[in-house]
Write a structure and sequence with these properties.
The protein is an alpha/beta fold. It is built from 4 helices and 8 strands, in the order E-H-E-H-E-E-E-H-E-E-E-H. The strands form 2 sheets. The protein has a 6-stranded mixed beta sheet, sandwiched between helices. Helix 1 crosses helix 2. The longest helix is centred in the first third of the chain and has 19 residues. The chain is globular and about 50 Å long. The chain starts with 7 loop residues before the first strand and ends in a 12-residue tail after the last helix. Bound molecules: inosinic acid and magnesium ion. Inosinic acid binds next to strand 5 and helix 3.
């Protein structure tokens, strides 16, 4: 059997560490949004696993929405952002929590935050599973984050490389030969959504 596990070089966050971190962040979110009008907006595809684990630990009433965003252009940078779907439900007057898998340059979150504020959200807070502060190119910090990572390309728990590895239950680093073999030259430092 071919398994995604065999391509992993090392595990950065195991399942227990992930759950502990999510419980801590869920408690902080619950406290901040007590009182209502919360809509959690999961940014697809990367945050789907994180968002579904997160909302089940937030006991206050909330709505769930999805938006799809991907960067294109040069693979080593976040190129222009393509927003291919906006939630059709009400945004106006709602308190939004934008949820993404990882905050890298910050361009995705920054752009989406501005778009939702323009569409009349009362408030837009941000929550990320992983934060790579060393890569930031815009002035944005997440209001809530589960774990910080160094400038490494990681996969698992929703995060992909070339569309794969989202189903790993932990976060890990791929064996170097996987990046090399997937590529040609342009994928050695991947960073696409
Ligand atoms: P940003 O706009 O540069 O902050 O890019 C964020 C997006 O880049 C994330 O939603 C991910 O899809 C992708 N990304 C950045 N770093 C990684 C990584 O280490 N592994 C997998 N995807 C990543
Ligand atoms: Mg993404």
């Amino acid at each position: 059997m071919t398994s995604v596990h065999q391509d992993i070089d090392s595990v950065l966050f195991d399942e227990d560490t992930i759950v502990e971190g999510i419980e801590r962040v869920a408690a902080a979110i619950t406290e901040r949004f007590e009182g209502g009008d919360l809509t959690v907006v999961s940014i697809l595809k990367g945050s789907c696993i994180f968002a579904s684990d997160l909302i089940r630990r937030i006991p206050i009433p909330l709505e769930l929405a999805f938006v799809s965003a991907s960067s294109y252009g040069d693979r080593t940078t976040s190129g222009d952002l393509e927003i291919s779907f906006f939630p059709t439900g009400e945004i106006e007057g709602r308190r939004l929590l934008l949820v993404d898998d990882i905050l890298d340059t910050g361009k995705t979150m920054n752009r989406l935050k501005a778009e939702f504020l323009e569409r009349g959200a009362a408030e837009v807070a941000t929550c990320v599973f992983l934060d790579k502060p060393s890569r930031r190119s815009v002035d944005l910090d997440a209001d809530f984050r589960v774990h910080e990572v160094d400038d490494l390309f990681v996969v698992g728990y929703g995060l992909d490389f070339a569309g794969r590895y989202r189903n790993l239950p932990y976060v890990g680093v791929l064996k170097p030969e996987i990046y090399a073999s997937a590529s040609g030259s342009d994928m050695s430092v991947p960073s696409a959504s």
